[in-house]
Write a structure and sequence with these properties.
Oligomer: single chain
CATH class: Alpha Beta
Strand content: 15-25%
Shape: globular
Structural class: alpha/beta
Mean pLDDT: 94
Helix content: 25-40%
Length: 138
């Protein structure tokens, strides 16, 4: 029986860590997909999902640090990750450029996440074989 062909995935995460299972479920999927030879082309954070990119998240020592785990996964597998700019700005997440633009004292978006518009997302979904949504709804 021939091995299945590797697929390319684009992931959308709309739920915040610690208030939904979306980031955890998406990370479990991403790890399993990569382990099976598939590719994650891009992760796109939208709505409350942008909280996953915050440098200010400080979970208790007995809880999983989902933002740190995502950062490590993205860096290890060279997966680009984008925060929707409108969602990020509404929720107080700024990269260096947006902090300067809005004359704010600091930036709080963790690398390798970047703040960008929907163009990045449209490009990723057009190149991916499948787009999966990990929603934060209850």
């Amino acid at each position: 029986m021939p091995a299945p062909e590797a697929a390319r995935f684009a992931l959308v995460i709309t739920g915040a860590p610690y208030t939904s299972q979306a980031p955890q479920t998406a990370l479990q999927f991403a790890r399993a997909a990569v382990a099976q030879g598939h590719t994650i082309d891009r992760v796109f954070l939208y709505g409350d999902g942008v909280h996953l990119a915050s440098t200010l998240t400080c979970p208790p020592s007995d809880e999983a640090d989902w933002p740190a785990q995502w950062q490590a996964f993205l860096k290890t597998h060279a997966v680009p990750a984008t925060c929707c700019i409108a969602s990020a700005l509404r929720r107080g997440l700024l990269d260096e450029g947006e902090a300067r633009r809005y004359e704010k004292a600091a930036a709080n978006v963790a690398a390798p996440f970047v703040v960008a518009g929907l163009g990045d997302w449209l490009e990723a979904t057009s190149q991916a074989d499948r787009t999966l949504y990990f929603n934060g709804s209850h």
